[in-house]
Design a protein that fits this description.
The protein is mostly helical. It is built from 3 helices and no strands.
Length: 59
Amino acid sequence: MTKIKGTIIMLLLFCSSISFAQSKSELKEYALRDTKITSQATLKIDFDTVLNYILIQVY
């Protein structure tokens, strides 16, 4: 019984991760947006903004 429950849970996790996947075009849009913001902040010498977009945020 435990093996069946484990299989069902893994299947549900797999299906839910597929439903939240992003398309390649969305990822390109986000990358381009972040690049523009970072480059403008670099030109304005606003390093707080640069670090917010470059470093990974840990919650």
